[in-house]
Design brief:
By secondary structure, the protein is α/β, with parallel strands linked by helices. It folds into 2 domains: about 140 residues, Rossmann fold; about 140 residues, Rossmann fold. It is built from 13 helices and 13 strands. α8 packs parallel to α10. The termini are far apart.
Length: about 350
């Protein structure tokens, strides 16, 4: 009788111990483990327009999420929407994301981020390809936004681009700059360009557009009075890179770009950022938010690493000699010359 009672006590103790171990194991799981195992988070991606730079940033964002264990269809649900360059579309998509109660929104380009900001002050939002989030009025400060936003900026140092321009085209006196006059990020860049150019004794001729359809006429009439064209990180301009490259090559006007994409389509050179890496950096910020941080706790950042690209075919066509030190450190591409 005593032996049987002892056996029962041993069995009970074993059972209770196992249960406690199981409970202990479950309480030690992180919120991230819980998210990955069953809590499907809904992420809305609003991209302003389709072009190489923004497409790369979008891909970088999704790839980083996957690298960190957040995969579409498994533990997150990503809805991709493109506004096709129309602000009204961006506003509609932003409202749809709010109405469907997304857990996080990723906005690509300044107008897209502004559309989301106008639609919600609550849903955590990560942005990328926004030159100056404070001037765009989606953040109060770079270190802590004070809003439901954080992200990565594509701001690049204009003084370095002017230096490159002077090295490659030393006789240049007038720089043309083509940009969308209604894009806040572009206006900021043009103002910085004018200030930097003035210090170097260079004149700046502005070529303003509001749509891709205006590029042909507005740029064609300006090419006769400029020595070189500068293309900032502007979404409308990026959508017209092929046309801009063609027009400039026909007029024998070199292009210096703030991003690499123009160099592949007839531009001479660029010193700027890698938008894929910019998107990946934004993806890291999204992971921090998915794992419990608030956007105000995640600093807005830029990329310190610059990418330097030269189109050797364009240089040859325009009879431009690339200095040896620049050629040795640049990524070289070809094409874009017809």
């Amino acid at each position: 009788m005593v032996g049987k009672r002892k056996l029962i006590l041993i069995v009970c103790a074993t059972f209770i111990g196992s249960a406690l171990i199981g409970c202990s194991g479950s309480t030690q799981k992180s919120s991230n483990d819980s998210l990955k195992s069953g809590d499907m988070k809904k992420i809305g991606v609003l991209q302003l327009i389709q072009h190489d730079a923004l497409d790369s940033a979008n891909k970088g964002f999704v790839d980083m999420l996957k690298e960190k264990g957040y995969e579409n269809g498994k533990n997150i649900e990503i809805e991709q929407q493109n506004a096709q360059g129309e602000m009204t579309n961006a506003q509609t998509i932003a409202k749809q994301f709010v109405d469907s109660k997304k857990d996080l929104i990723f906005s690509i380009a300044t107008p897209a981020a502004q559309a989301v900001y106008n639609a919600t002050k609550d849903i955590p939002t990560v942005f990328t390809a926004v030159t100056d989030p404070v001037s765009a009025e989606i953040a109060k400060d770079w270190k802590s936004s004070g809003t439901n936003f954080t992200g990565t900026s594509d701001k690049v140092p204009v003084d370095k681009q002017i230096k490159l321009l002077k090295q490659l085209i030393p006789n240049a006196k007038t720089i043309g700059v083509i940009y969308n006059t209604s894009e806040t990020n572009s206006v900021i860049q043009v103002d910085e360009l004018k200030a930097a150019a003035e210090k170097e004794g260079l004149a700046v001729k502005e070529v303003g557009v509001t749509t891709v359809n205006e590029i042909n006429q507005n740029l064609a009439s300006a090419l006769k009075s400029i020595d070189v064209l500068y293309t900032p990180t502007d979404n409308t301009v990026a959508s017209g890179h092929s046309l801009i490259g063609k027009l400039c090559l026909e007029a024998n006007v070199p292009i210096i770009g703030a991003e690499e994409a123009i160099v592949n389509k007839g531009g001479l050179a660029s010193i700027g950022i890698d938008y894929y890496k910019l998107g990946k950096e934004a993806g890291l910020k999204a992971v921090e938010i998915l794992e419990g941080k608030k956007p105000t706790d995640v600093e807005i950042t830029t990329l310190s690493e610059m990418s330097f690209t030269i189109n050797t075919d364009v240089a040859k066509k325009l009879n431009i000699t690339i200095p040896a030190d620049i050629e040795a450190n640049a990524k070289k591409v070809t094409g874009g010359v017809q």
